[in-house]
Write a structure and sequence with these properties.
The structure holds two protein chains of two kinds. By secondary structure, chain A is α/β, with parallel strands linked by helices. Chain B has two domains: 164 residues, 3-Layer(aba) Sandwich (Rossmann fold); 122 residues, TPP-binding domain (Rossmann fold, 3-Layer(aba) Sandwich), CATH 3.40.50.1220. In chain B, helix 4 packs across helix 5. The chains are: A alpha/beta, B alpha/beta. At the A-B interface, helix 3, helix 4, strand 7, strand 8 and strand 9 of A face helix 4, helix 5, strand 5, strand 7 and strand 8 of B.
């Protein structure tokens, strides 16, 4: 069984995003970039499926600039077998990315797509569901456990107020939530090996997909700052202020 | 132009997020219909009909809709969209599950997690864990929107909309519900609670979390939350998590105990009306957003706060 894992290159999880002074976006110049954390979890899950003998091949795919090759090399170092970069300097919206991924699915014929539930830059939480819709495949979003066998994926999902388990007939799209697994660190030998694994680069234009944007970014601004509060000295002081000053008790 | 709101409910009662989403919808159009899809819809639709300003309530009943299967919602909502120019869903995990699927089928963008409706085509939404706000203008003929309910006021009661039953789609062929574990709690629900008491990694264990955080929450009639660090360490269950990757809350009072205030946590609670932080590290980032900060070890401070609350009759 082939597993396809889409991954995205984003601002590193530990870096605070800063809005550009001209309000055109977030300043990414000279900022550390990494694989989106939810994508790492997806790669880890796919690699574990291979280690368990459930998956036979793990293919990582990214839609992005040349530098996204580094992100794909990370996926390869974690254990993916090969990688595909759909190269573009456009900043594509989730619908466009889903359409590109649909074209890659048509070429690769995976039985399972495992991907992160959201990217920490756009925070849309949409691409996986959109891909499933475009393919008319079932979806299992926000997975915290995944079992694959007998042509089905049994997925435990994080839902409002608890957990839900559903069973999807393959092929299907599964999106990873935080607690699905803890991604491994790639070892140095595996990082070296990853350099020799195949990485195929395609131009976005070669896929013949409509990736036009539907949303125009008017401006990007900083959120309003909270006015600084005060320090209280004692618990008595705190409770008194909450009751008499803030009026919330 | 008419707009559709997909109601948030648990197959028992209507959730407040629906009222808040109606408020966002009313900024787009005066013709707001509410779709109640699931089980026990007659009772829930009757509640939705009471929301002021709602034109019509549509009720569709099936087990699969009640189980929240996205494929069932796609089959139900996509044909309905012939009659609507926009569909709004609260950005709960269920809303996030179903809405993008509907958008893709309509070949339109989803506008995720909207916090402000500027005009019928222009919306503000947080990106980068709330470290930036993006204003976007949509060129799609139909809008598919998820709404961050905590930032909108709940629409008032007092309406008397007509309820219309519509046919539910056939059960989806390729996906099946197996079961669910919903945590039963006597406490208010985290995302709608007026007061939230949250604990962080400083608790050190699940036992300590229960010993310290839960009694204080119960004294205040509050919901219990946790930082991601506390959840990851196993001190608190997953659905307690407040933050970018958990629940976004905006209560009247948010009490953060032993929480340092990582960006990801702040993204989930910084819109609270009043924030209290108790932390022994005076440099903890949580104090930058706290209205009232108490620099103290929670082990001493929480029992004192409990005593003081008792004195004022809590």
């Amino acid at each position: 069984m082939k597993v396809l894992v889409p991954v995205k290159r984003v601002i590193d999880y530990n870096v605070k995003a800063r809005v550009k002074a001209d309000q055109t976006g977030v300043d990414l110049a000279n900022v550390k970039m990494s694989m989106n954390p939810f994508c790492e979890i997806a790669v880890e899950e796919a690699v574990r499926l291979k280690e368990k003998g459930v998956a036979t091949e793990v293919v990582a795919v990214s839609v992005g600039p040349t530098q996204a090759q580094e992100t794909l090399r990370t996926a390869l170092a974690m254990g993916a077998d090969r990688a595909i970069l759909v190269q573009t300097d456009q900043d594509l919206e989730p619908l466009a990315v889903a359409k590109v991924l649909k074209a890659i699915v048509a070429e690769e014929n995976p039985e399972l797509v495992v991907m992160g539930k959201q990217a920490i830059d756009g925070d849309n939480n949409a691409t996986g569901q959109m891909l499933a819709a475009l393919l008319d495949w079932p979806q299992a979003t926000f997975a915290s456990a995944l079992e694959v066998g007998g042509g089905k994926a049994k997925v435990t999902r994080e839902v409002d107020g608890g957990l839900q388990t559903i069973e999807a007939t393959l092929p299907a799209v599964v999106t990873a939530d935080l607690r699905l697994n803890e991604p491994r660190y790639a070892s140095l030998p595996n990082i070296m090996k990853a350099k020799k694994k195949p990485l195929d680069v395609k131009e976005l234009g070669s896929l013949g997909v409509d990736t036009g944007s539907r949303l125009k970014v008017v401006k990007v601004t900083e959120p309003p700052k909270r006015a600084g509060g005060i320090k209280v000295e004692t618990a008595a002081d705190l409770v008194s202020k909450l009751k008499n000053e803030a009026g919330v008790l | 132009m008419a707009v559709l709101v997909i109601a948030d409910h648990d197959n028992a009662s209507l959730k407040d997020a629906t009222h808040k989403t109606v408020t966002a919808a009313q900024k787009l159009s005066g013709d707001v219909d509410v779709l109640v899809a699931g089980t026990n819809t007659a009772a829930i639709a009757a509640e939705a009909a009471k929301i002021a300003g709602v034109r019509r309530v549509l009720a569709a009943e099936s087990a699969e809709l009640g189980q929240g299967l996205a494929e069932a919602f796609e089959a139900l909502v996509v044909p309905l969209m012939a009659n609507y120019d926009a569909v709004l869903t609260p950005a709960t995990s269920q809303g996030k599950n179903i809405s993008p699927r509907i958008a893709a089928k309509l070949d339109v963008a989803q506008i995720s997690d909207v916090v402000e409706v500027v005009d019928a085509n222009t919306f503000v939404r947080p990106i980068y864990a709330g470290n930036a706000l993006e204003t976007v203008q949509s060129s799609d003929a139909k809008k598919v929107i998820t709404v961050r309910p905590t930032v909108f006021k709940a629409a008032a009661e007092g309406g008397s909309a007509k309820v219309e039953t519509i046919a539910a789609p056939a059960a989806p062929a390729k996906v099946k519900f197996i079961g669910q574990e919903i945590v039963k709690s006597a406490r208010p629900e985290l995302s709608g609670a007026k007061i939230v008491v949250s604990g962080g990694r400083a608790m050190g264990s699940a036992e300590e979390f229960q010993r310290v955080i839960e009694p204080l929450a119960d004294k205040l009639g509050a919901a219990v939350g946790a930082s991601r660090a506390a959840v990851d360490a196993g001190y608190a269950p997953n659905d307690y998590q407040v933050g970018q990757t958990g629940k976004v809350v905006a209560p009247e009072l948010y009490v953060a105990i032993g929480i340092s205030g990582a960006i990801q946590h702040l993204a989930g609670m910084k819109d609270s009306k009043v924030i209290v932080a108790i932390n022994k590290d005076p440099d903890a980032p949580i104090f930058q957003v706290a209205d009232y900060g108490l620099v103290a070890d929670y082990k001493a401070a929480v029992p004192e706060v409990m005593d003081e609350l008792s004195k004022i009759g809590k």
